[in-house]
Design a protein that fits this description.
With 422 residues, the protein is of the alpha/beta class. It contains 14 helices and eight strands. The chain has an eight-stranded mixed sheet, with helices on both faces.
Length: 422
Amino acid sequence: MTGDFLFAILLPHAARHFVSQGLGIAALTLALCTLAGTLYALGFALVGIFTGSGSSAENAHPNAVRDNANATNFLVLVPAHNESSGLIATVAGVLNQQYPHQRIRCVVIADNCTDDTAEVAAAAGAQVLIRTDPTRRGKGHALAWAFALVGGLSWDAACILDADSVIAPDFFAALDRSIQNGHEVVQSRYDFEATANRKNWLQQFTAVSKAGENSFVYRSRNRMGLFQLLMGNGFCVSRAVLDRVPWRAHSIVEDAEYAIELGKKGIAIHYQERARVWSRQASTIRDVQPQRVRWASGTGQLFRQAVPALFLTAWRRRSAHALEGILMLLMTSRLLLVYLLGLSLLLNLGAFAPLSTLTWSLLAGVVLLQSLYLLLMFRFASDRPEPWAGLLRLPYYIAVIASAQALALAGFNRRVWWRTAR
């Protein structure tokens, strides 16, 4: 009936029937893909909830005395571009750890700065490397430059921290546990600081979404031994790995780019949830949008480069994990499911009646399952349950992310890096 209504005045009966069937098949196919993706995400969420943050053997007794405890010499690299206002707290957090001070070397990379970042970092107690190269800007280039300079220093593992980070007092002790247990690349739990202003819906939903990524993606994938991406802040790489896979990640999503290179070499990324790092949030759409566009642009570039590489890795290593990694990349943004849902709905408006009824049923199930996912995220992902009233702000958050992805698709900010205002 719906198809006849839409096409009666445009097409003859035979053509209407053919087009309606085609739309019905397309709508049903998209609905099935959306259902599969929703079940995929929900499955990881349930694994994250039921395994919890301290269920692994490595974390079962975090305070137990070990013969090899606190044995790792850490080189902490802090790329900083005009970060003088928040750098003191970051350096203090590194130097005041519950870990032997002589085993931590804090190096701030003052990258193309026009303020007093270098002076502030030195006064706070950090070693400072000053980099001036306006033609190759960004975190990836700064790290590659710094790694070339620190080769003569004594260190076992390099830890990368953003200049606006707050780290837990036992951050390096937790990383050391993972390294002493044989993990060569470790990603900490990276969250955004919770906002005290409950009326700031952007910050609230951003913090909850990031918590969901930690609890429902990284924790679950770690328990299942699956391919992981790096988050860009709070990750640690052993010197041996950096010798095997030198840092050549220069894109605007340098962390994910390097993770793909590690995956191609069969090097696993371990997620250590007891190592906690928090970053300050941007407070307005005007501040956050350039960063969101940059992430979306970089992720699109990465996907085009990484998918062929992962297919090749899967073929050479006969690795199902590499194939699953492609699906994980596709699901980097959960909005993909929203887009598929909306497209299926639109196509179904002109679909042939029997197929249309089945598709409507599937889409209704998808909406219920995605609603369940959001409820679980607000209840279980963060350190404390978030008010479910925040779900009312979901449309605004989707609009912000979707607009950033649309700008990225249109070509904005594909190769540009700049500092995000906080």
